[in-house]
Amino acid sequence: MAQARRQMDRKWLWIGAAVALIAVFLAARFLLRDRLPVRVARVDYTPLSNTVSTNGRVEPVRNYQFYSPLATTVQAVYAQEGEQVSAGKTILKLDDVAARAQVASAESAVKAAQAAEDAAMHNGTLAERQAATAEIAQDRLTLDQAKHDLDALNRLAATGAAAPSEVAAAQSRLASAEDSLHAAEQSAQHRYSPAEIARAQSALNEARASLDAARRVEAQTTIVAPVAGTIYTLDAAPSGYAEAGKLLVEMADLHKERVRAYFDEPDLGRLALGQPVSIRWDAKPNRVWRGHLARLPVTVVTYTTRNVGEALVDLDGGDDGLLPDTNVTLTVTIASQPNALTMPREALHEQNGTYFVYKVVDGQLQRVNVAIGSPTLTQAPILSGLQAGDLVATGTVDGQPLQEGLPIKEVR
């Protein structure tokens, strides 16, 4: 009996020792295990700007382009590319022989149309009116003679000296003379119908329009600077051939430029007139030009592979070295806060529409729900849930997922 009791006590002693060893092992493992290295960042007050970036192209506010009005040759060139010219300076001259011939032909057509319109308005040409006057006078003489003959035959018939048939023949001649006179007078007064008059007037207007067009073509054979500016495209040489419609000269006042910006469709609702814009050009990486949105997009168009809205940016303080047709990058400041409570955007997580972060508390991660404002590409403004000085985890060093309650080693 005593021996059985000693065996039972020994058994429980071994069990107790085993439990103690396991407890010591687990405690040691918990206390001595490696803590997960985690990158952390401090919540702090910093200036925050919400921006939209895109590309654009520099263009003159007022650009002047000159094209060859017809197929001809270049007669003379009086300027060169890059030259600053004064208003009224002749830049180049085209051979205008064909243009002058077109003007002469158009002038002849106008004169012919004027003569036809004058004839329609005045019942014929001068010769036709003179002929009509002479015809009316002759018909009146014939009518008078017919009346005189009829009167004489009526007197003779009263005495029996003339036959009734002779009187009837005289009456017929009188009626015919009256009809001829009436027809001549009607023709002299209404030679042209209203439709014919309108047709003649339309032909004259068309001829005049053709003459104006021919004169414009002739005027365009001499290219003159309309304002003081810089010639930045000149594609012409003496005796060179210029096909109709060829762009020969581009010039502008390069001290008055703007930027045409191309904003992606999802960003259009964030734009507003007057928003500040910074402009950079790769050719001068150390320079930044300032401007503001002067015209918002009015439609969406396809630009390369993007759907964009075109906006215009006015430069503040001049272009100072920007060249036309250069490609630039633009950054529009949508909103700006000088002192916002922020954290790195990579520390922010979202689940079922709720935002949260992993806050560092006593060497462990604690999940904390937060409310944020409109984030930028790198920063998120904090409205509630965190305070200045709090540490938040932005990710693990070895790529393992973050978990609440996980003991960590801070890495900055």
Order of helices and strands: HEEEEEEHHHHEEEEEEEEEEEEEEEEE
User: Biggest β-sheet, characterized?
Assistant: 6 strands, antiparallel, barrel
CATH topology of the largest domain: Elongation Factor Tu (Ef-tu), domain 3
Low-confidence stretches: 25-33
Shape annotation: elongated
* Separate helix tally: 5
User: Which strand order does the major sheet show?
Assistant: 2-11-15-13-12-16
Query: Superfamily at the CATH H level of the largest domain?
Result: Efflux pump adaptor protein, beta barrel domain
Cα distance, first to last residue?
68 Å
Q: State which percent range the strand residues make up.
A: 35-45%
Structural class: alpha+beta
| Tally of strands | 23
Tell me the radius of gyration: 50 Å
What is the architecture of the largest domain at the second tier of CATH? Beta Barrel
Q: Mean of residue pLDDT?
A: 86
Which bin fits the share of residues in helices? 25-40%
Q: Tally the structural domains.
A: 3
CATH class of the largest domain: Mainly Beta
Can you walk through the features of this model?
- The protein has 412 residues and is of the alpha+beta class.
- It folds into three domains: 35-61 and 255-412, Efflux pump adaptor protein, beta barrel domain (Elongation Factor Tu (Ef-tu), domain 3, Beta Barrel); 63-92 and 222-251, RNA polymerase II/Efflux pump adaptor protein, barrel-sandwich hybrid domain (OB fold (Dihydrolipoamide Acetyltransferase, E2P)); 106-215.
- It has five helices and 23 strands.
- Helix 3 (126-159) runs antiparallel to helix 4 (164-189).
- It is elongated, with a radius of gyration of 50 Å.
- The two termini are 68 Å apart.
- Mean pLDDT is 86; it is low at 25-33.
